[in-house]
Batch of 2 targets.
Target 1
Amino acid sequence: MKSVSKHLQFLGYIFHKKLIAIPLLLFFILLSSSGTASSIPEKISFQNILENKDITMGEVDSIFQDSEGFMWLGGATALFRYDGYEFLQVYITSDDNPGAKHAVHFANNIFEDSHHNLWISSKSGLLKYD
């Protein structure tokens, strides 16, 4: 019984000093992830959703998915909302002249607040989409 107690004390010392805790942890992580490797597809394919579309946006600077599932793409020359089927270009309007609309330039960041308001930082300033 005394030798078992000494072995347990020794193992406790080793784990306490973390001499084998990290390699043992890595071993268990690798062991547990080896079962999921077979579920990863061998071939992954992508589809260009902008192919054959008349969309000019320059480089995409920001991508955001809102709470309703819409994807927002902000580029150098435009801001687009994608619903999974088609792209809708979003324009800036002014309270002074509601008939005039302007493209959103350099939409750098897109954020949704807790009230589901969409905020876009752009060259035109901070914009709120409602």
Target 2
Amino acid sequence: WQTDTSIGDWTYVKGHGYRPATEIIQELIDIVSKNGNMLLNVSPMEDGTLDPAAYTLLKEIGTWMKVNGESIYDTEPWATSGIDNLRIVKKGDKTLYISLFNKPSDNKILVPYLAPKNGTSLDINTVSILGSEAKLNWKSNENGLEIEIPKWFSKLREKALETMITNRFRHYSIEIVN
């Protein structure tokens, strides 16, 4: 299925603003997590060119896609699309992308779907942020996988990051969108 949406009005209207990049990105993540495609309308001005503000918005989305595009392109729905502000997609058998739309107030991400079964382990070796060498603190228990968001995260200017959880057999990624 496909959803058609626009960065603002469906036709160019001088002086009208555009939706924030974060809102458009979150809509994209939600649609992809439900096995959909998003067609994004960018209305040209009357002379056929784009408004400079539209270019700026598209550059913001492009910056996000450079870091996070692998969580969108060539992905498939997972067992569930997610819950509340959390969305999940997979790529192959080794990658799971978990997207969060809001940073939790306690700086911890809980992924309830990744709880080990009785007496088993998820065999996760490291948790790190894609595009960064930093390792994150995490634990896995009967409640799920809990990842601690580092203090330096709030200082970043990027609107979205990816987190990679690596283990012997599988690779999970968690994408944080703020």
